[in-house]
Amino acid sequence: MKCTWHCLPDLSQALLLTEFGSSRAADRIKTSLDNIEHLISSPAHGFRSLGSAALNMCEVARGCADAYYEFGIHCWDYAASDIIVREAGGVVVDTEGGALDLMSRRVLAASSKQLAEQISPRIKHLVLERD
Asked: Nearest to residue 129, comparing CAs of 18, 25, 17?
């Protein structure tokens, strides 16, 4: 089943999803908060956090949210949702905009490539231990 989104011309109209992950290291928390601050002041329309990578990505696939990004998740948290978003017509990439590497523990799912390209340069990217 293909979902159809309204096409967003820019980030200012986007509803974004993210999570803080399970790490409570001070630097990781600071990076997460800095990323939210950069995006919300871009300005993004709004932020939500649903508590699950799979649920967040499925909300993008359904068209209920426009993009989702996260650092520190594991491949089993989002591998199936990657397929769901792509089958619905969305894009799933590495947070730096390149091809998704499921073992890198970072993901950016969006309703369009253009929206992903607007989000990626506005966030600080983490390089984490691979799965």
From this structure: 25
What tens digit of pLDDT does each residue of 21-56 get? 888 999 999 999 999 999 999 899 999 999 999 999
Residues 6+ apart with CB under 8 A from 18: 32, 35, 36, 47, 49, 56, 68, 69, 70
- Tell me the two tokens of residue 16: 């974004």
Identify the bridge partners of residue 67 per DSSP, sorted by sequence position: 16, 110
Dihedral sign from CA coordinates of 46, 48, 53, 57: negative
Q: How far apart are CA 84 and CA 23, in angstroms?
A: 27
Residue type, 10: D
